[in-house]
């Protein structure tokens, strides 16, 4: 940055009214020119991203042309349904609730998940809870390692680093949740002749924090260009309930509450936003570190981690690859 | 087969479809895109099982794991040190309800 524009959180401030209007215009343009469906299905989690996506869709197309889909399962946080219902009421959009535990049971999710955890914690059983956490990259110059945290029915917790095989099996099983939810979103989209709106923010989209053909699948992604900090600014302008705006971002995927920064991102989202913004605008790590109260070395590690995640998740963004170009396809 | 050759064989077979492609003993796995972060987990599991060593979180650093040469040096140092064995569990304070 130049001397007259010190690097700070203010760089992520936007005019939420202008931005919401711009996004809504673009949603209408895309629906008319390319998607050609009559409305949008949005999976509601009770989190900030799906709430803002639904609000923008309702503003762009009218609330009667947006279907909010609530898809809890037995590991979902208790407050998720209450919050998603509150958002739907606020927006005036119709909702459908699809409980997915039975579907997860029928594909063997719960058994597969518990079998994988038992490879490292043999006593793990029904009634126990668990989540995956990362080692965090700013504690040392380490390579990211994943651990499982388990909680016994008596509340005692244990943390074990995950070897390669159970790590992959746990993640693969857990991805059923996102893929089953997406399957249901497309079922309702097809029966209504609607399209599906994806809900990633910029951090998630850029860093590949989504499941391919799960939450990564959508016909349009209206907030994928917004830093998470900016999603909150737009949320306030759109009147998203305060309880949703003040909720800590979670994955709502594991039976133990899991923050996104525990599982995937190196830092809490507001700090990650600034690091990503700094990297995108070639700001020296020293300047970002000063704004965040981190060391220059820590920010350099985060910069490196951003590159690593971009490289390792690139395939998530790719369409199926062809050996030869098929002529009718657009460039 | 020497330790270095065994590690090379594992890397080439596992991550390069058997084609060595000019892989040097000092080629950086991460910077050259040979092994990604999930691949490092696979490498660590291989090292622990094949050489019966325990690798702690603090040892998961590029200096130990980012090239054939570094991995070989690291494994030799672990084999020479006392206290190798299975990874240990860490008890945690329960989260508030």
TrEMBL record, chain A:
Keyword list, A-Z: ATP-binding, Ligase, Magnesium, Metal-binding, NAD, Nucleotide-binding
Enzyme type, top EC level: ligase
GO cellular component, one term: cytoplasm
Source superkingdom: Bacteria
Any Pfam family the entry gives: NAD_synthase
Binding site for deamido-NAD(+): 179, 212, 219
The NAD/GMP synthase domain, residue ranges: 23-108, 169-303
Listed pathway(s): Cofactor biosynthesis; NAD(+) biosynthesis; NAD(+) from deamido-NAD(+) (ammonia route): step 1/1
Subunit structure: Homodimer.
Family membership noted in the UniProt record: Belongs to the NAD synthetase family.
Name listed for the protein in its UniProt record: NH(3)-dependent NAD(+) synthetase
Taxon lineage: Bacteria, Pseudomonadati, Thermodesulfobacteriota, Desulfuromonadia, Geobacterales
Gene name of the encoded protein: nadE_2
UniProtKB/TrEMBL annotation, chain B:
Residues in Carrier domain copies: 1-79
Protein name as annotated: Acyl carrier protein
């Amino acid at each position: 940055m130049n001397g007259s524009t010190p690097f700070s959180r203010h760089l992520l401030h936007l005019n939420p009214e202008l931005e919401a209007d711009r996004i809504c215009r673009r949603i209408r343009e895309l629906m008319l020119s390319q998607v050609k469906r009559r409305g949008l299905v949005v999976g509601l989690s009770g989190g900030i991203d799906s709430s803002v996506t639904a609000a923008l869709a309702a503003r762009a197309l009218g609330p009667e042309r947006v279907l909010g889909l609530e898809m809890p399962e037995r590991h979902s946080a208790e407050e998720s349904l209450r919050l998603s219902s509150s958002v739907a009421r606020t927006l005036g959009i119709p909702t459908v609730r699809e409980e997915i535990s039975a579907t997860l049971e029928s594909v063997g999710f719960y058994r597969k998940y518990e079998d994988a955890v038992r490879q490292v914690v043999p006593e793990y059983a029904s009634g126990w809870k668990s989540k995956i956490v990362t080692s965090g990259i700013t504690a040392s110059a380490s390579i990211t390692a994943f651990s499982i945290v388990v909680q016994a029915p008596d509340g005692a917790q244990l943390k074990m680093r995950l070897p390669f095989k159970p790590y992959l099996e746990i993640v693969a099983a857990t991805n059923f949740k996102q893929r089953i939810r997406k399957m249901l979103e497309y079922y309702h989209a097809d029966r209504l002749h609607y399209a599906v709106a994806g809900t990633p923010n910029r951090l998630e989209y850029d860093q590949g924090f989504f499941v391919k053909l799960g939450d990564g699948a959508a016909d349009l992604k209206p907030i994928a260009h917004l830093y998470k900090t900016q999603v909150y600014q737009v949320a306030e302008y759109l009147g998203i309930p305060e309880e949703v705006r003040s909720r800590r971002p979670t994955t709502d995927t594991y039976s133990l509450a899991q923050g996104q920064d525990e599982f995937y991102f190196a830092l809490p989202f507001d700090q990650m936003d600034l690091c990503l913004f700094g990297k995108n605008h070639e700001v020296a790590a020293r300047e970002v570190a000063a704004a965040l109260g981190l060391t220059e070395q820590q920010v350099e590690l985060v910069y490196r981690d951003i590159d690593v995640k971009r490289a390792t998740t690139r395939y998530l963004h790719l369409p199926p690859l062809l050996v030869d170009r098929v002529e009718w396809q657009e460039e | 087969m020497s330790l270095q050759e065994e590690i090379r064989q594992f890397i080439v077979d596992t991550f390069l479809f058997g084609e060595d492609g000019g892989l040097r003993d000092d080629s950086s796995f991460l910077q050259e895109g040979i092994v990604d972060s999930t691949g490092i987990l696979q490498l660590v599991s291989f090292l622990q099982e094949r050489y019966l060593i325990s690798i702690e979180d603090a040892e998961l650093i590029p200096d130990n794991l980012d090239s054939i040469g570094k991995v070989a040096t690291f494994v030799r140092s672990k084999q020479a040190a006392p206290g190798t064995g299975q990874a240990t569990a860490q008890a945690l304070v329960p989260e508030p309800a």
